[in-house]
Each structure stands twice: as C-alpha cells, then as structure tokens.
Amino acid sequence: MRRMDKRTLWLRWVAANALGEMLGLGMTFGVVLLVFSRLGDQQGVGIVLVSFLFAVASGAIEATLVGLGQWWAMHPWFPMITRRTWWLATLAGALVAYILGYLPYTHIFDGSFVNCVNPDNKLPKFRKFVMYL
Known about the structure:
Blueprint: H1 3-39, H2 45-74, H3 83-109, H4 112-115, H5 125-132
C-alpha cells in the first residue's frame, strides 16, 4: 500500500466511524428516550428488564451504522471481507459491550441492590457480582 493509499484509508476510516457513531448513537439515544418516556415513573423488576432489553437492542442501530460505514471505508483495501461478515462482527461486539455496560446499572436499579447486604461483611450484592467477574 502506497503512502497516499494509507492516508486515504485512514481518512475514510475516521470519517466513517465519526459519522456512524454520531448518527448511530443519536438514533440509539432517540429510541431509548422514546421508550423510557413511555414507561414514565413505573417501577419494578419487569420495567427494569424491559428498559435493559430496549437499551441493549437499540445498540444494534449504532452497530449497524458503524459497521456498514467501516466496511465501506476499508472495502477497497480488503475486498475479501464481506459486508455481512463485517456487520455481524461489529454487531456482536457492540451487543456484548452494551450488555456488559448496562448490566451493573440494571442490577443497581432493580431495587435489590439498595436492600441487600451480605451479613458476614456487609458487602453489597453488586460488589460481590463485580468481584465474581
């Protein structure tokens, strides 16, 4: 790859990621905001789980836009990678990140975190969970 080709690839990659993240996170935020506003002040484990599922599923929007943008950026240099393969890899990585990112907050806000302590050392359940990981 010539120097100019590397620069072009880098510029395309940065532009694709910037635009994909901006639009993807914006749309993700919009979906989450819409769902959460519909739920209102409802409480309970069911509401927390619904919120968790919608937040994680909305991550697929971001993953799709970022993944397709990345594939467009690198395809001329790496034609052997198919769009579907790159999109699925990006989707899988993003969903794992969303699940791991939202999981602690889901546990905190389901109500059990505040009311539950370990009697032997008074360590909250959340810290035990993190230590388990």
